[in-house]
Amino acid sequence: MNQPSLRKTYDLAGRVAVITGGGGLLGPLHGEAIAESGGVPVLVDIEEDRAEERAADIQRRFGTKAHGLQMDVTDEGSVRQATELVEQRWGPIAILVNNAAHDPKVGGTSGENRLTRLEHFPLTQWEQEIAVGLTGAFLCAKVIGAGMAQRGSGVILNISSDLGLIAPDQRLYARPGELEENQPVKPVTYSVIKHAVIGLTRYLATYWAARNVRVNALAPGGVLADQPAEFLRRVEDRIPLGRLAERHEYKGAVAFLCSDASSYMTGAVVVMDGGRSVW
């Protein structure tokens, strides 16, 4: 058997990749990783304008095809319709990056903070965030992954988090002098969803192994995004590398996990968190 060159194993030439949450913080960066590797990123988002704008930016900067499309990951009909449109217009979907999620913000007024705490966390918010971050990943895998399995080839990359491996350290958000019931916390949903995404990854990896559909997860750490100085000081003390990630630093892992360079990996969780989960 001829051994392909290392450079060739990273080549995604002509492969269509759907990235959910494509209009958000990291979705466009995942699209860039696909584009720079020769693939065709399709950024899907509930807000079509944002998806199209980010796709146009990728196309302009990297001189490759990129597309934006509206899709509601919580609606199976929307997922099926968008999948059909993608495959009619640009070809079979070879890669799915399940990236869409709500990342609830921490910190606000005392009343707002009170609602983030477990004792007062609204059921409606729990259901909305589960619907996007977990049910959305399930529906996209169900619809798009089934097509991959029928063709006998495909890659699914689920975006988890370091908080899919460890619990949030609520001391990071503490406000001196604030009553306990008004202290800001990272809400329960984010960590629960990111843990569950890893479970979904392992289930799908074994379910479709015989159909040559590989399923892995990436567990990134926090990203530098104009956070308050005191929060940065606290969190950086808990990270062996002493800093949060720059947005572009996950692109290499995405390219690796979506390409044949990772052809003998499935059901794996690649952790890129500056070492935070080691401590």
How would you describe what is shown here?
It is a single chain. The protein has 279 residues and is of the alpha/beta class. It has a single domain, classed as NAD(P)-binding Rossmann-like Domain (Rossmann fold), CATH 3.40.50. Helices cover 42% and strands 14% of the residues. It contains nine helices and seven strands. It has helices at residues 6-9, 27-36, 48-62, 76-90, 110-116, 123-151, 188-207, 229-236, 251-258; strands at residues 16-20, 40-45, 67-70, 93-98, 154-159, 213-220, 269-272. A seven-stranded parallel beta sheet has the order 3-2-1-4-5-6-7, with helices on both faces. Strand 5 (154-159), helix 7 and strand 6 (213-220) form a beta-alpha-beta unit. Helix 2 (27-36) packs parallel to helix 3 (48-62), helix 2 crosses helix 9 and helix 6 packs parallel to helix 7. The longest helix has 29 residues, at 123-151. The chain is globular. The model has no long low-confidence stretch (mean pLDDT 95).
CATH architecture: 3-Layer(aba) Sandwich
Mean pLDDT: 95
Count of extended strands: 7
Write down the CATH topology: Rossmann fold
How would the blueprint of this fold be written?
Elements: H1 6-9, E1 16-20, H2 27-36, E2 40-45, H3 48-62, E3 67-70, H4 76-90, E4 93-98, H5 110-116, H6 123-151, E5 154-159, H7 188-207, E6 213-220, H8 229-236, H9 251-258, E7 269-272
Parallel strand pairs: 1-2, 1-4, 2-3, 4-5, 5-6, 6-7
Helix pairs in contact: 2-3, 2-9, 4-6, 6-7
Features:
7-stranded parallel sheet, 279 residues, globular, alpha/beta, Rossmann fold, single chain
